[in-house]
Amino acid sequence: MTRELVGVIVICIGLVFSLAGVVILYAYKGFYIKAAATSLIDSAGFILIVIGIIIYSGWDLISLKVFFLLLFAMILNPLSNHYIVKGAYRSGFKDDISD
Q1: CA-wise closest residue to 72 among 48, 93, 96, 47
Q2: Of 63, 44, 65, nearest to 55 (Cα)?
Q3: Per-residue pLDDT tens over the stretch 35-94
Q4: Cβ within 8 Å of residue 12, ≥6 positions away
Q5: What is the pTM of this model?
Q6: Which DSSP category does 92 fall into?
């Protein structure tokens, strides 16, 4: 019972982080600021949600697969965001704030 409760709490904290990422999309004006902030918050939200799922379900073969999914996402999410921003910068994209 306590394992499920801890799992649900961690999942809810991850959802709060993810919803904060949506709010940040409207709070900031510059592309580069939005990209950096949402990447960090979405990564944190996803990590917490997946850890909550692992805690909720207990440690078994499926949790091990979900853990490998977590490792894969922890590598690819920042990397993909980096290349999106790098491509925008190299193409000469300038938003109103970065002048």
Answers
A1: 47
A2: 63
A3: 888 888 888 899 999 999 999 988 889 899 999 999 998 899 889 999 999 999 999 888
A4: 52
A5: 0.82
A6: T
Q: Where are the domains of the chain?
A: 2-90
Cα–Cα distance between 99 and 95 in angstroms, integer? Answer: 7
C-alpha distances in Å from residue 54, one per residue of 15, 50, 65: 15, 6, 10
Q: What is the DSSP letter of 95?
A: -
**Mean pLDDT on 23-33:** 84
Q: Which tokens sit at 45?
A: 């939200």
Place of tokens 């805690």: 55
Which 8-state DSSP code applies to residue 53?
A: H
